[in-house]
Structures are given as structure tokens and as C-alpha cells.
Write a structure and sequence with these properties.
Blueprint (H helix, E strand, L loop, with lengths): L1 H27 L3 E2 L11 E2 L2 H17 L13 H22 L4 H17 L6 E4 L2 E4 L4 H19 L5 H19 L3 H21 L8 H20 L4 H11 L1 H16 L12 H7 L4 H22 L5 H20 L8 H15 L6 H12 L4 H14 L4 E6 L12 E6 L15 E4 L4 E5 L5 H4 L5 E9 L5 E10 L9 H29 L1
Parallel strand pairs: 6-8
Antiparallel strand pairs: 1-2, 3-4, 5-8, 5-10, 6-7, 9-10
């Protein structure tokens, strides 16, 4: 216990001394974070705090190595710890480079995975998980789950690092709880390492709490996320997996929830899933009117509650644990709903999204499959008359009232002479039936036009109506060949437009263009052979 306390004090003292030094060096070297629309600060601040934390940890462990105690003797250079610290250095390096030379999200994820892979190769891995008597053995998927664990924690600490002292405080509380539980479990080496991390962060917070004079930077946040993820796995080797693994999950509950929610939120809003924004938990709290200091203190309070909850959970083994988790889950839902995160996922919007998805796939939408079948009839058309017949069948199913197609006079039309106007009149609109060819009316007009109308619709009486929807679709191929124009008309006062109609109209347009390309190609090919 004395060695654990010594590690904490020594690391904190080193961090207190090194942080202002690296801040001065960072400012002189231009390694600063400039303010922008996403940032809260209004002046350039050094982003070199991660260097102070890393150096404090290294110097602390080096000094402890020269102090002969039973705990410090456990810190020997075996494969596991060499791999763990090698991955740690790599993770810090890629974050530090990203601080001043912006890297793509793919590049950052790649190096995070490589750093986690190094730790996995050294033996830092999650092979099974046990919760309240329920055990899972990951087997061949142990590597995937371990890499996900590392990447999740690395990015969780990074995303929450948006306000002065926020990320560092959360990590400090998590480290303190892990020290407490590791000591109780007599896992003194892990307790010493977590104590060193906690001390380094506490010394750094002296200069990082609002108003901050130095920032963690991505290098520092990556470093802390990696340490918490890796040490929690190492600590699980000599403890019950439940007791150790649940602690960092709950202690870092706010940033972890935010990390999982952020890509989903961006996806639903139509943005890139890994594009930075100002919609994280701390940003939402600021928009509610809280000051920066109050937001940090509020998140601290939530973290302390979650840490206490983690300690309670590891000491109960009955149905009370499940009930407690349910209560916490409901509270989390209400909290994030208060922040406005559910605005994008109202039930109607989710329902519409699934409706669109099922309609596009054709798996669940019964109306989609007949529509696709009718599109096939368009492709099978032998000439322009049969093509128009297939088109009008679709228009009637889509509940349009009138359709016209103006054809380019330069086209070679099979079965349609220049000046012909073919009109198909549906006398039974409720039966969704197109009359036979011999019921069509042939008139003379130039340019060539194909018409279809469903009684009792009369365009002349509704031409000035505000309820008329008129869609004019140019039939132009990708090679810029103009075949004509398809015009559709619907009286929305009689029946509103269907949710899927416009998408199917575009599908129809593309299919008609494709068919016209095939017909014209076949005509020119026939003439060439002749």
C-alpha cells in the first residue's frame, strides 16, 4: 500500500513540475490550439499536456524501479508489459502528430488498431467475460473484441476532451476507483500503475481546470484512453472479470455513451459518421445555459455516481444488480433526451426510414414487387405504342391523373408515325385497368405526343388549381441523348401523393431511358445491316 501511495504522490509531483514547463515549450514552438467555432476557448493554448503526463509516468516508474519493495519488484520487463507500453507510445505519437498535422479518421483508426494489436500480441487480451453468473468465451473473436475495447476507450476520452478539465477529471475518478478495487483484490501492481496515472492526471488538472493554460491534446487523450483500457484488462487476469471490467465501463459511462451515440447521431442527420461536430454531451449542456465550469462539475458528479454504482454492482450478486442496471439505463435515457438527442429519432422518422429501406430492397414492401414487375414490362416493349401502354399501367398504379410523353422528332419510331398523337383513356380508374389498344383514340398533332388521362380528371378545369402537382421529366441518357420529355399530372386535393411515389417515378424515368436507348440502338443496327 505504501508503494501505491508513493507512486501517486511522485507522479503528481512530477506532473505539477513538468506541465508548466512543456506548456511554455509548446507555446514557443507554436504547438497551440487555435480557437474556432467548435472551441470554447478564445485564445491560443498549448496542446502539449499529454507530454507532461507521459513523462511523469515514465519518470515515476523509473524511480520506483530503484526503490526495492515487493510491489515495485513486480514491474519487470516481460513480454506483456513491453508490448503494452510499446502500444502506449505509438498511440500517444499518432495523437500528438494529429494535434498539429491533421490526419484522416481512417489513418487515426488504423494506428489505434495497430497499437491495440501490439498489446494483444503481448498478451493483453479479453478472452472471456462474465457478468452475474453469465459467462461468454470469445474464442477466435478475442482479438476483435480486444481491439474494439481499446479503440472505444481511446476515442471516448478523446471525444469528451472538449472542456477545461473534463477528460482529465473523469479519468482521475476512474483511476481512483480502480486503485481502490485493485488494492482490495490484492492486485498491487495494477493498483500502483493506476495510482501513477491518477497522480499524473491530478497534477496536470492544476493547470487544465477552467480557465486552462494547457490542453491534453489528442496525444494526451489517446494516452489516457489507452492506459485505462489496457490496465483494466491486465487487472482482470488476477480478479473476477466482472469486478474489474465493469468499473471503467461505468466510470467512463458519459464519454463511452457519447462515443457510441455520436456516429449514430451523425448518420441519422446525414453527416459523415466520424466528422467532428459541436453536438457532444458537453456542447449540449453549454447550449442549455450552463457555464463551462458548471458543465464540468455536473459531469464530475455523474461520474462519481457511476463510480459508486460500479462499486455497489461488484459487491452484489443477485437480482438487485439487474434492477439497478435497469434503473440506471432509464435514467440515462431521460438524461440524453433532456439534452435533445432523441429529436432525430422520433418514432415517425424511424418508421419512415425503415419504410424507405424496405421499399428499396423489396423484401417487405408488397407494393414494390408488382412495380418492379411492371418495369420489366417496360423493358420488354416492342415499340413505342407498347412502351406507352406499359408506362400508363404504372402511372395508374401510382395514382396519377394524366400523363404525356413528347418524343424527339429525330427518333426512329417503330409503329408511330410523325404527327401521331395516341391517347389512352381509362374508363374504370378503380379497377387499375388500361383499355385494350383498339379503344385508343388516334388524333393528328405535331410534335408527336402520347397522352393518358384518367376520368373524371379534366386538365382544362384544374390548370390553375393550387392542388395540381405537375412533374416534367427530361428523358436524357448519360451520353446526353435527348429522347423527349415525360410529363405527369396529379390532383393532390383528391388524394395526397404516396410516400414512395417520387422515388418510383425516378425509377420509371431511368427505365424508360434505358429502353429507348435499346430501341434506338436496335433501329440503327437494323438500318446499318440493311
Amino acid at each position: 500500500m505504501t508503494t501505491v501511495l508513493l507512486a501517486f504522490v511522485l507522479s503528481a509531483a512530477l506532473s505539477l513540475a513538468l506541465t508548466p514547463l512543456v506548456a511554455v515549450i509548446g507555446r514557443k514552438a507554436g504547438l497551440v490550439d487555435f480557437p474556432d467555432e467548435r472551441k470554447v476557448h478564445r485564445q491560443a493554448i498549448p496542446r502539449t499536456g499529454g507530454i507532461a503526463i507521459l513523462l511523469s509516468l515514465v519518470f515515476c516508474l523509473v524511480v520506483l524501479n530503484f526503490i526495492p519493495t515487493k510491489v515495485s519488484a513486480l514491474l519487470r520487463p516481460d513480454r506483456q508489459y513491453i508490448a503494452f507500453f510499446a502500444g502506449c507510445i505509438l498511440c500517444f505519437a499518432i495523437g500528438f502528430v494529429d494535434d498539429f498535422h491533421r490526419l484522416s479518421s481512417k489513418m487515426k483508426f488504423l494506428f489505434q488498431i495497430v497499437a491495440a494489436g501490439i498489446a494483444f500480441w503481448g498478451g493483453v487480451r479479453i478472452e472471456h467475460f462474465s457478468v452475474f453468473g453469465f459467462s461468454i468465451d470469445f474464442g477466435p473473436f478475442a482479438m476483435i473484441f480486444t481491439l474494439f475495447w481499446f479503440v472505444l476507450f481511446i476515442n471516448a476520452v478523446n471525444l469528451i476532451d472538449g472542456l477545461d478539465g473534463l477528460a482529465g477529471g473523469i479519468v482521475f475518478f476512474a483511476a481512483a476507483v480502480m486503485v481502490f478495487l485493485s488494492v482490495i483484490g490484492k492486485n498491487y501492481l495494477v493498483a500502483m500503475l493506476f495510482a501513477a496515472v491518477g497522480g499524473a492526471v491530478l497534477g496536470f488538472l492544476r493547470y487544465n481546470f477552467s480557465p486552462a493554460s494547457v490542453f491534453l491534446g489528442d496525444g494526451g487523450s489517446y494516452l489516457l484512453g489507452y492506459f485505462v483500457a489496457g490496465l483494466s484488462i491486465i487487472g482482470s487476469f488476477k480478479s473476477q472479470v466482472t469486478a474489474v471490467m465493469l468499473i471503467p465501463i461505468l466510470a467512463l459511462g458519459v464519454p463511452l455513451y457519447d462515443t457510441i451515440l455520436s456516429p449514430i447521431r451523425r448518420f441519422l442527420s446525414g453527416h459523415k459518421m466520424f466528422q467532428p461536430d459541436a453536438e457532444h454531451v458537453h456542447h449540449r449542456l453549454l447550449k442549455l445555459g450552463f457555464s463551462t465550469r458548471r458543465v464540468v462539475l455536473l459531469v464530475y458528479a455523474i461520474t462519481l455516481f457511476l463510480c459508486a454504482a460500479a462499486i455497489i454492482l461488484v459487491n452484489i450478486r443477485d437480482e438487485r444488480a439487474g434492477l439497478f442496471l435497469i434503473i440506471m439505463g432509464v435514467a440515462a435515457v431521460f438524461f440524453f433526451r433532456k439534452l435533445g438527442y432523441t429529436d432525430q429519432i422520433y418514432s415517425s422518422m424511424v418508421s419512415d426510414w425503415f419504410t424507405d429501406l424496405s421499399d428499396c430492397s423489396g423484401f417487405f414492401g408488397r407494393e414494390r414487387r408488382p412495380f418492379i414487375e411492371k418495369l420489366q414490362e417496360v423493358i420488354k416493349s416492342e415499340n413505342y405504342e407498347s412502351l406507352w401502354r406499359s408506362i400508363t399501367a404504372i402511372l395508374e398504379d401510382l395514382e396519377f391523373d394524366k400523363g404525356s410523353m413528347y418524343l424527339n422528332q429525330s427518333l426512329k419510331r417503330d409503329g408511330l408515325s410523325t404527327g401521331d398523337r395516341i391517347v389512352y383513356v381509362s374508363d374504370h380508374p378503380e379497377r387499375r385497368r388500361i383499355p385494350p389498344l383498339n379503344s385508343s383514340v388516334i388524333l393528328r398533332k405535331s410534335p408527336p405526343e402520347l397522352d393518358w388521362v384518367r376520368p373524371p380528371f379534366d386538365m382544362e378545369n384544374f390548370v390553375c388549381s393550387r392542388s395540381i402537382l405537375r412533374i416534367e421529366l427530361p428523358l436524357v441518357s448519360e451520353s446526353n441523348t435527348h429522347f423527349g420529355t415525360l410529363v405527369l399530372v396529379k390532383d393532390t386535393a383528391v388524394k395526397p401523393i404516396n410516400h414512395q411515389t417520387l422515388r418510383r417515378v425516378e425509377d420509371l424515368r431511368r427505365t424508360v431511358i434505358r429502353k429507348m436507348e435499346l430501341m434506338e440502338s436496335a433501329t440503327w443496327s437494323h438500318q446499318s445491316r440493311a
